[in-house]
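Consider the following assembly input.
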Amino acid sequence: MDKKLIVLNEVSKVFKVGEENFTALHEVSLEIDSGAFMSFVGPSGSGKTTLLNLIGGLDVPTTGNIFFKERGLSSMSREQMAEYRRENIGFIFQTYNLLPVYSVYENVLFPLLLNGDKEKDVRDRVMEIVAKVGLTDQLKKRPAQLSGGQCQRVAIARALVKDPLVILADEPTANLDTENSLQILELMRQLNRQYQAAVIFSTHDEKVTRYVRREVKLEDGRIVSDKNNVNGTA
Amino acid sequence: MIAFLIRGILRDKSRFLFPFTVVSIGVALVVSLVGFMEGVFMGMIDMTANLDAGHLRLVNKPFYDEEHLRPLDRSLAGQKETRDWLKKNSPDEVEWSPRIRWGAILDVPDANGETLSQTPVVGMALELRAKNSKELKRMKIAESLVGGRLPESPNEMLMGNQLAETLGIGLGQSVTVLGQSFDGGMVADNYQVIGLVKFGVSAMDKKMVLIDIADAQNSFYMEDMITDWLGFFPPDYSLDEYEKVKVALQEPLKEWIASPPKSWAKDDEPILLSVRDQQNIGAIADKFYIIQGFVVGIFTFLMILVLWNAGILSGIHRYGEMGLRLAFGESHWKLILTLGIEGLVVGILGALAGSIFGGAFTYFLQEVGVNMGDSFAQTGMMINDVVRARLTIGGFVQGILPGIFASVAGTLVASLAIFKRSEANLFRELEAG
């Protein structure tokens, strides 16, 4: 496997806010390896989420280039970008964003159906992932019947089920208590080792920073520090 | 994937129930309304056909040209040949019945045989005494009797109840028909009024008398002669189908006229008319269907309007899901397509439910009807007192197709908002909540 999975080359992102231009990212350059377990850390407005959106192919940079396995994202059409997300990216959200009308099993199944898979072909895969996050006994429950920690486990299973190369986790512990946060982080670390998907957090939760192997600090859209093995717990 | 999404819609009452209910109600209203309008209109057509015009009518052109004068000398001879020709050339489902339209003065004598009162009457002669006559049932004569009985012997007459009232005639009383015979001679023949009828059509109840066709042929010296052959279709046939048969009969009719029966006069020329060709019904029908089209169009437009708004509300409610699906790599086009399919499924289910409710209500109105006799009493309209709806396939089509279209169009119009938004915007809204 090529070690350099994602390369950002002087990426800037400018948003138009009314008549004004707001620069969310200033010429950010970054390399992310396969299997990374890292975080973007910074206060609100520092550009963390913008960076995640650009890497996730949900937005395009105003200037600069992003390469995924040496393929430029900027040159991709909307359809190709959708395909890129479908095949390579998993998302985990602060508010879980589970589909309330579907069960745990169906929520995890959902990305595979979007991929064009047939339910009967992927049932075992879904069951395996649900077992990994420890929710086998909650399979038929709907999100409203689960705790916050359980919901986030479902979200992790949903992100992992299609075996993506990158998981983007936007403040995944922000809505959880300490115990649940630590359990989730531990679970993600185990899954990162097992599945080798690069996990990129956007967070200002210190608990997260203790778990990651690399921490990129952002301020006002600029990288102010990029440290490896910050706490060495990984 | 589609089955998965449909499962979601059915579980999410806020997404399913409102558009489903709107489509159901819309379709039920359209099916009922079209059924009722069709029923009222075709009821008028059938009433006009049964009493007077037939769905199809074979008449001698010289008679038709001066019909207002009831020129019996222009009647068509060769009753048996004509019946055979009609049976041979027209479809089996068309029933042909002979009629004689006549006009005369009705003289009511007193006990001394002196004239008590006189009035011009519109007379219709039909098969009242013939075995297995379908005319009695067709004109609902037995049900229309408000006094007396049906003719059983020669020279017995049925009279409109209002006419009898005006003339002061009671059951069993004799009247004299004063008119002109086929050969131009004077007719003065006595009839006994043995039944009073009320058709619920003011024009007929005030002016009409009915006698048996054999009596008319006898009184007016019209042996083997008929003024009209009326063709009747089963109830569920439409105006267009009458026209098709009429057109199909034109060619054989030309051939028949080219080699006519010996009993015909030199200038006899039977023509075939549909009910559309008579009493300005064609123009009325065209206007009726335009109005019906407008009504269906307005309902469809209103349904689209409501469903569009429902779709927008549902779309806002589902921005999270949309953002998620885009984030997971579903393309905009596929997203819109699945929304369209969802709209289609909701439309089909709503249309089915609406058809069942609307159909059941229309069927009820068809079987039971609405008695509007009081409203029609003072009109001269040829319409039955009991107005009935008519359940037709066309009515369902006019309800179901716009219902489904409205559901899909409403969803798609609403989803344009999603289509125009970028993935990042939807994603931000997803994150916001």
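The helical segments of chain A are 48-55, 78-88, 104-114, 119-132, 148-160, 178-195, 206-211. Ask yourself how this observation constrains the way the partners meet.
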